């Protein structure tokens, strides 16, 4: 079957069939719709951060962090959202999101409550930031989400030091190795963009070289939206956060999935790196790890 069925395109369907979860995916997919329910709207207005994924003007896919006082993201209608401020100047997605209509994926993840929701659609610039017309809205379970408390924001607005590169530095590689959470943006031509979350115990992401890393694809909701997109388009963007200092590390490149029996591993090749020291004003506590996190191999 080549065309989309319900919320899924042929890439997701191919992975669902390969793993043998098509029936479960069909059931879970019924929760995906264009409407923003009141409970979802209320959740959005409580969030101090949201992650957005899209392609830049050169076609590279990035995952970017947006922050603001709660209420900076809010539903403005049954299928529309506003984001005050938009992406920061200098962000890899700033130019693309400042022009016309751009397919985007967003994820609002609240470590305080271990809740998350995803909203994919089309973004356009406004005088205040961004407007997003929602096409797919849905929530995910708290699996692999680490719980964190939010401290007071960092005082002042010190200039952000931004470093660009084509490979990870040793310090950047250490940040990746220590991560218990990251975000991944993908897209499928004709089917829009998506932003998702990956979590596990520190060390679940392996750095294989300054331009290579990998992670296990843990069992999830059976939708396979991320891996489905990668089946059709290898471009991807990763976002790692230093939750204590606000530093962000953005990687863009390509990813492929390796299937080995019932196990899946995603391998990512870095093309560009952007590190912004103290980019986020938010400061979070050390995590309480999700009880769903698998143990790491010895």
Automatic annotation (TrEMBL):
Gene3D superfamilies: Electron Transport, Fmn-binding Protein, Chain A. Residues 169-268 form the Pyridoxamine 5'-phosphate oxidase N-terminal domain. InterPro entries: Pyridox_Oxase_N (IPR011576), Split_barrel_FMN-bd (IPR012349). Pfam families: PNPOx_N (PF01243). PANTHER family: FAD-BINDING, PUTATIVE (AFU_ORTHOLOGUE AFUA_6G07600)-RELATED (PTHR42815:SF2). This is Pyridoxamine 5'-phosphate oxidase family protein. It comes from Streptomyces gobitricini.
